[in-house]
């Protein structure tokens, strides 16, 4: 059958009906076998939905399709229009890409603006270009002007025609023109300069000019003389708005083609003239301004006698679009071949959602829909509202609500649910954290997919590429480089595997690399020159020097890092190759370059940093290369030879990859998360909107202050806020079973109330008006709203009795709460006592001293193999500036171990201390600044000469040295025997035969208030017991910068007994965590003279964090895990017994001894 021509507008309130009439037309008037059906859509969702419908079995009476979806071409309207222009006017007359396209016009303006900015008329542009970052400003200005001129070509072509003719006017109507404001007269002049700049007839290829020539040509077209290559049928589906220019083209095509425009119309009656209250008030105020003294009279009955308030408030865009369509629809062209033009039908469901949808359909005013609220209304779940404390809680609540819905209705499938948010990139981490954490084997798993994510921040290769293209501004911290190496194609390019990364990380940490390539790189970031330490080249030189010389001499004040060696040493070379490549490109990318040079360099960068792409990366690399090529073409066409900075090129290319098209995945058979976008009103059984917060939706996009269209609205103009309002209406109408709205209604900080979007407020107000609550009753909108607690583990989700509004499927929280509740009546649950550990190897003194210092840690580390790293959160990206306590101790310990314990000649002490400190500097352990590092060295060295003199004084009292004596003790435990085996070192003997150990402590033994720091004596105590077990009696002298201690000799039998007792307790600590902590234990013992109450108070104060002091529990992750507070440590009454067993012997030995230097300590 011959395909009839004509431009037909088909209206329906349900997209299913528009789809059905589309299928009917395709069936009734089939195209030839090799012809394509051409569909114009604005979103991939609509395209896929139509494809699925057309592919359905043609025998299905409800969802009849064609049985196949083939030979179909889906296109965006703008792209289709340009193809039609080329087809009708000739490809030799209309280029494949117009020089007036936004992207190409941008680069022409980048070149033109500096050339003309000095002229008086362009003074506003010159003013914008002044200041810092002029190249960035120039590009931003060119981009905005190009975008505005692009909009003018679509929505104000008549203005551009007038400007081209030398008239600086804006056309209001055919018979009315206004002069362009003086401050904006640069726009017409710049448009004329653009036209003049485009040579060889290119000026006639502006969209406005091409459109005019197209309409003139099409006046003579018809079914007989239809231009070749024009499609015989064009179906425009699901577009909520089109500019007048596009409608002109479609109407002209109707003379020789069949053009079907399917319009999603929420109302079956003429509603093009309804107006919202605020718009009517504005009009009335303008009328009074023109005629002062006119009374302002607004009659509510006349205002909305035949209007629906939600349709008036949300439907302005659709209203203007339908009014615009009235001027194009010509029923006489198609009445003879299709009867059905308006396909309106009400919803048959008896729910609140359906009632409002039907009211909008029938244009029912409020007073006709209002009735008293009933119990059935309260139980109606077709419209629900959820108020939470943040986006994460929104997603957690949604997950629970969907699980409940799937449980209640077995016919509901994941593909029947769509979740839309204002910005999907903001919600993606929360969606992944909630939906992605459930294992597919778990019965709570909900299959989901996320659409509309920009590749720029999702594809690992693009994330790495953006980091590489940001080298000039990057600090290149350790985390930055390791993030790059996490990207497989980049890592493999340098011969590295994922298994190599932990070893590299250890070496990077050990070589004290923090950030920066070298001193020059740091200087480029406005730091002083010469700061080389802790940079990548500094650390790599340490690694390579260590590989070459081991623990050899320093080279150019750089100390070797000797851990690099063996078969794994190749990793250092590969890391060095990677860093050298980074350095080479940092230098190349830091300078502005011409576009052709940038294009060549960017392609080379891809080859130098990434392996040949495989799998999904093949398409990505192809897109990258294509983007570079298109950008270079645009620059060459614009004759742009200026040098451009990297950031301009980077932003353009990466943004180009983020632009969406019709190839994004949608309707994948899962719960679909997407951004709220126009033309996505596909019907779903459940439509969920998250993030409906005041200020976030409708989204705001302030117009540019030089946008002349903002002062002259025309039907068909795009407005972000009106788009969002109509999108909200479309989403509301596309819901079949339930419309779900969620917003952040409470502050996460102080629980204060936060308003929902004005659109949500309007809907809630409307519900309360049409379902009127009796006096004293809650409004229906309140009854339909669920306010959720701040935390997902709140006890409110696990009530013994309730209305079922609050619930959760996160059973983990139930287990946690049950465990917590049990602690309120019983002791904190202890880990079950494990069977005794069998040791085939002897233990050493170091294990006993570690046990005394951290008795709870031993259970987790030695028995369970669990390590809680409290330093995991410490940044490896910052160089040392001010040394913390641990770093100061490390420096002091280095000086003590390398100098004080080795020095025999005090005459060279300071020289040797200086050399040792310089070696620490060469390892990158001190401040980056030379001045600060020098200060740290002087502060560390200052007290050591006096300590050295005291140490030498003791050595002279015990001149005879016995270097080693073996120690071996056995302890029988059941059928097993535990052996302690080690060496007692550095025994010394005096002239009188007395034995002693002399130890230097890098830590202070007393605090500023002259109290012993008992935990610093635990390691010396173990060695003291060992010495007396083999050579009693032995006195142990421990010297420190602040305080000395002498451990008194004990008998050999007592020493052996105490060591064997500690061995037994050590075994006990491997079966269960012991309820004791050393600092808390000594606080308990120190308060003993004051009585039990003071002892408990002192112990509690030491264990728990107080106002000015950090408690022992907060300093130890193992204690936090098993004994979170003092009550849990104290509760079973064993604390005091373990204090007596483990720590009292040391306390009794030292108690009463006075410090050798001054005063005593407690």
From TrEMBL:
Assigned keywords, A-Z: ATP-binding, DNA damage, DNA repair, DNA-binding, Exonuclease, Helicase, Hydrolase, Nuclease, Nucleotide-binding
InterPro entries to which the protein is assigned, alphabetical: DExx_box_DNA_helicase_dom_sf, P-loop_NTPase, RecC, RecC_C, Restrct_endonuc-II-like
Keyword Glycoprotein appears in the UniProt entry: no
GO biological process per UniProt: double-strand break repair via homologous recombination
Pfam family, any one: Exonuc_V_gamma
Keyword set includes Metal-binding: no
CC terms in the record's Gene Ontology section: exodeoxyribonuclease V complex
Chain ranges of the RecC C-terminal domain: 841-1087
Entry GO MF terms: ATP binding; DNA binding; DNA helicase activity; exodeoxyribonuclease V activity
Record-stated family: Belongs to the RecC family.
Subunit-structure text: Heterotrimer of RecB, RecC and RecD. All subunits contribute to DNA-binding.
Additional observations: In the RecBCD complex, RecB has a slow 3'-5' helicase, an exonuclease activity and loads RecA onto ssDNA, RecD has a fast 5'-3' helicase activity, while RecC stimulates the ATPase and processivity of the RecB helicase and contributes to recognition of the Chi site.
Function: A helicase/nuclease that prepares dsDNA breaks (DSB) for recombinational DNA repair. Binds to DSBs and unwinds DNA via a highly rapid and processive ATP-dependent bidirectional helicase activity. Unwinds dsDNA until it encounters a Chi (crossover hotspot instigator) sequence from the 3' direction. Cuts ssDNA a few nucleotides 3' to the Chi site. The properties and activities of the enzyme are changed at Chi. The Chi-altered holoenzyme produces a long 3'-ssDNA overhang and facilitates RecA-binding to the ssDNA for homologous DNA recombination and repair.
Record-given protein name: RecBCD enzyme subunit RecC
